[in-house]
Amino acid sequence: MSRASSTSAPQLTPQFCFNERLLRDFLRISRSTIDDSITQNLNALFTPARQGFDPSSTAIRQIDASEGKQIEPAACQSFKDKVLFPSWQVRSDVLNYCAGVATSPDPEDPDLILQQTESAEDREHIVDDRLDPYAARFLPREPRTESLANLVRTQRGVEDIIRARTWGLVTERCGGPSESWEEALNKWRENKQREQAPPSTE
After folding, report:
1. Minimal CA–CA distance to 171: which of 183, 160, 159, 189?
2. How many C-beta atoms lie closer than 10 Å to residue 26's C-beta?
3. Mean pLDDT of all residues in the chain?
4. pLDDT, greater one: 140 or 22
5. Half-sphere exposure (CA, 13 Å, Cβ side) for 124?
6. How much is the pLDDT for 46?
7. Which of 50, 98, 121, 151 is the most exposed place for a label (fewest CB within 10 A)?
8. What does the DSSP 8-state code read for residue 138?
9. DSSP code of residue 157
10. What value, to the nearest 5°, has the Cα angle with vertex 11 and ends 102 and 157?
11. What is residue 155's predicted lDDT score, i.e. its pLDDT?
C-alpha cells in the first residue's frame, strides 16, 4: 500500500474562499486522504515481518492482520510529523485565511449593488409571511462575506470532530503521552518554528 502524504496548500486568494464549492472540495479531499483513511494509513506503517512468520496465520482468513496492533514509535512519529500535522495545518491555514476574508470589506461582491438596492426597498416593506407566502423574496440577500463566515464556522466545527476521532485512533495504535490533539499539534508547530528560526548570532 502506498503511504499517504500530506495535502498541499491551495493558492490562497479571496476568489478561492468565495468559491465555496472549491473550498469545500479542498477540505473534503484533504480529509478523505488523511483522516477518513486513517486506519489504512496506520496499517501501512505496520511491519509484520519484524515479528517473524506465524504459520497459524494462514489457517484463518485475516481481514486485516495489522488492525489493532501497536505500531513502532518511530514510524508513528514520522507519520504525525510529516503527514498528519502538516495536513491539519494546511486546513487550519485555509480556514484562518478565509475567516479573515469573510471579516474584511468586500467591495468586489457582485451582488453588492443589488443588496443595497434591495435593502433600501425592503425597508419599506413590512410583510407578515403568514399572510404572504412570498414574503421571503423581500428578505435582503445575504452578503457573500456572511455566507463565507457561516461556512468557515461550520467547517471548523467539522474539523474539531474529525481531528478528535483521528487522534483517538492514532493514540490507540501508537501509544505515547496522553495529550489532546490540540496540545500535540501546538507542540509540532512550536518545533517547526524553532527549526525555521534563523540561528542566533550571539
Report:
1. 183
2. 18
3. 78
4. 22
5. 4
6. 75
7. 50
8. G
9. H
10. 45
11. 97
